[in-house]
Design goal:
The chain is built from 9 helices and 20 strands. It has 2 domains: 285 residues, Zn peptidases (Aminopeptidase); 126 residues, Aminopeptidase i, Domain 2, CATH 2.30.250.10. The strands form 4 sheets. A 9-stranded mixed beta sheet has the order 1-2-3-13-4-14-18-16-17, sandwiched between helices. Strands 11-12-20-19-15 form a 5-stranded mixed beta sheet, covered by helices on one side. The protein is of the alpha/beta class and 433 residues long. The longest helix is centred in the middle third of the chain and has 19 residues.
Length: 433
């Protein structure tokens, strides 16, 4: 069940996930891989004129990367892979130090659609970024990752709550504060601990974006290790596949026929409405500026978009063996059957027949299987960045994703083959015929 090519890809995926507990770490991990492949980072204040080859722009938890092949014109169409870097989790409040009944606790806020029971009784670390006082008065940023069992949200013993297995909802406001020590709360204690881990003076910390993560390492599951189990598969499976595909397109023997692009946005799990989300003009401005940097006009920009194609890659639902009635009876994707093509006629996904044809043709050329997905009519459908990208840029878009179980949980599952299948298809699309 785990031949070498698939296992090699997922081994690398697990390393990527372990190094990327926050959106900011996802961007850093992706940038490191791109730079190793010869890509260079551009700043917004740089002069981009004549910039070719592998390029990328990073901003907080978002990254846009592209490759300009030899002979590309200003109107060469784009082949875009859209993903997101964030995952549902627990994020630390601005005034975090609290406590009750002799316990010291940390105040957290729920980010995205979190199945809260999956975060109970797990050993939790802290990750994110610190905004620090800079020597020139301009704040600087520092990533922090504490992979130690610092915190825990304890489950109430069944003796004290006999209804715990009856589906009683957790009180989101009162019972989610993790414990980490005994005694009265000490103001500034968390900041001092995190700053020390980052090698910084707490007095220099002006702000932070910190969150909790499960410190159990990613791994394999099953009789023949045919499943991947890890935190944040949604959506680091797709980010990793997109980075892999872009690097392969840029360094392969054949020069791409298009401008391959990776767009990894933040805040998808809470609606994408931020400066680094898919609703922002970030991708549009960077791509249009790249056209201008190659000497292009407004007409070239319009031509590049008219021939563009976007794959929105986000995790999908495999059929659940214990709740199969929640799925459409005729569309039941399974792990290791290939990525799904996600369809919703109400445009929660942007897929249409043209997008299906382009993606499935690429899958055929890549020698990778694929599966159709549609939600049960009686169940509300999720969404992705696909409709946002399609509406903002006006390009043909298809929504796809690796099927998995336990989506949004502290620890998710997918098939060992599917991440590699997705990367192979995305590479084929980016390179073109």
């Amino acid at each position: 069940m785990t031949p070498a090519p698939h296992r090699s890809h997922t081994d690398d995926l697990l390393s990527f996930i372990a190094a990327s507990p926050s959106p900011y770490h996802v961007v850093a991990s992706a940038a490191q891989r791109l730079e190793k492949a010869g890509f260079r980072e551009l700043r917004g204040t740089d002069d981009w004129t004549g910039a070719t080859g592998g390029l990328f722009v990073s901003r907080a938890g978002a990254l846009i990367a592209w490759y300009v092949p030899e002979g590309a014109t200003a109107h060469t169409p784009f082949r875009i892979v859209g993903t997101h870097t964030d995952s549902p989790n627990l994020r630390i409040k601005p005034a975090p130090d609290k406590g009750t009944s002799g316990w010291r606790q940390i105040g957290v806020e729920i980010y995205g659609g979190v199945p809260l029971n999956t975060w109970l009784d797990r050993d939790l670390g802290i990750s994110g970024r610190l905004a620090l006082r800079g020597p020139d008065g301009v704040p600087r940023s520092r990533l922090v990752q504490i992979d130690e069992p610092l915190l825990r949200v304890p489950q109430l013993a069944i003796h004290l709550d006999r209804s715990v297995n009856e589906g009683v909802a957790l009180d989101r406001q009162r019972h989610i504060a993790p414990i980490w020590a005994l005694g009265e709360p000490r103001e500034g204690e968390l900041l001092r601990r995190v700053a020390a881990a980052a090698g910084e003076d707490p007095a220099d910390v002006l702000g932070w974006d910190l969150m909790l993560h499960d410190i159990q390492p990613p791994g394999y599951l099953g009789v023949e290790r045919e499943f991947v189990v890890a935190p944040r598969l949604d959506n680091q499976v797709s980010v990793h596949a997109g980075v892999t595909a872009l690097v392969d397109a840029a360094t392969g023997a054949a020069q791409p026929a298009f401008i391959p692009v990776l767009a990894a946005f933040d805040h998808e799990e809470v609606g994408s409405g931020s400066e680094t989300g898919a609703q922002s003009p970030m991708l549009e401005r960077i791509l249009s500026r790249s056209v201008a940097a190659r000497g292009g006009s407004d007409e070239d920009w319009s031509r590049a978009l008219a021939g563009a194609f976007c794959v929105s890659a986000d995790m999908a639902h495999a059929v659940h063996p214990n709740y199969s009635e929640r799925h459409d009876p005729d569309h039941r994707p399974l792990p290791n059957g290939g990525p799904t093509v996600k369809v919703n006629v109400n445009q929660r996904y942007a897929t249409d027949s043209t997008g299906i044809a382009m993606f499935t043709a690429a899958a055929e050329r890549a020698g990778a299987p694929w599966q159709p997905f549609v939600s049960n009519n009686a169940m509300p459908c999720g969404t992705s960045i696909g409709p946002l990208t399609a509406a903002r840029l006006g390009v043909t878009t298809v929504d796809v994703g690796v099927p998995g179980l336990s989506m949004h949980s502290a620890r998710e599952l997918c098939g060992v083959r599917d991440p590699g299948y997705l990367a192979a298809i995305l590479t084929t699309i980016m390179v073109g015929d």
